[in-house]
Amino acid sequence: MTTTAYLTALETHLRGTDRKLLVPYVTGGVSDDWIDYVHAAVDAGADAVEIGIPFSDPVIDGPVIQAASVRSLDRGTTPESVLRDLAAYRRDVPLIAMTYYNLVLQHGQREFARDLVASGVNGAILPDLPLEESASWEADAAAHGVATVLIAAPSTPDDRLAALCSRSTGFVYGMGVMGVTGERAAPTDSARDMARRLKAVTDKPVLIGVGVSTKENAEKVAGVADGVIIGAPVMRRVAEAGGAAGVAELIAGFRAALDRAGG
């Protein structure tokens, strides 16, 4: 089992939550009132919220989230504008930034970590930054109290999985399926297998995302994992003009499903 020498604020919060964890994703800047979607998700039972900082050339985003990012970028969204908007965040569950390393590099690693904290963000996910090249970012993030959440794929070999878990802070993000984010109708064996493999080598919270699309598959996956991450269902609800009320209804349904899994 691997244990960090210290706990980030994000991990401390998640460990202190006595239920299966639910982390929805919201694309920053997708509309004038996008912070309302974040508040709605938290009020409906989210344990943290992943905030997407849109990038023009994503590697892990499927069509729904890509479309949200394009819409956001067309509105003039920048990393700076997303972080400024977060000044309006008025809840106490953690926020996690999800973006791509090019934006971090352009901003400056230390400055980016500093600005995340100043905006109330507790963690960061950089899916295109390989483990072999992430030590410098991890150090700068840790110096400012930002958790670096690393991603494990079903194809990750066991020895690399252990190293990844050892260095991930906040939680470990397991991909339920190979491929980009998106909606799948049913849970796959790979999602539950990913959770089992991660739980065998770490005592950190293990959350499964990518392909966790329905309340039913979230409940089944959470029977093994500590929780789930949902992105495409949230952003589809936003795209369908569901508004904050629609996001709240969606998250409440997932919350009830996870509570059944943890019961």
UniProtKB/TrEMBL annotation:
Annotated InterPro entries: Aldolase_TIM, RibuloseP-bd_barrel, Trp_synthase_alpha_AS, Trp_synthase_suA
Record carries keyword Lyase: yes
Reactions catalysed according to its record: (1S,2R)-1-C-(indol-3-yl)glycerol 3-phosphate + L-serine = D-glyceraldehyde 3-phosphate + L-tryptophan + H2O
Any Pfam family hit: Trp_syntA
Highest taxon above the source species: Bacteria
Listed GO MF terms: tryptophan synthase activity
SUPFAM superfamilies: Ribulose-phoshate binding barrel
PROSITE patterns associated with the record: TRP_SYNTHASE_ALPHA
Record key words, sorted: Amino-acid biosynthesis, Aromatic amino acid biosynthesis, Lyase, Tryptophan biosynthesis
EC numbers for this chain: 4.2.1.20
Described function: The alpha subunit is responsible for the aldol cleavage of indoleglycerol phosphate to indole and glyceraldehyde 3-phosphate.
Similarity-based family: Belongs to the TrpA family.
UniProt cross-references to NCBIfam families, sorted A to Z: trpA
Name this polypeptide is given: Tryptophan synthase alpha chain
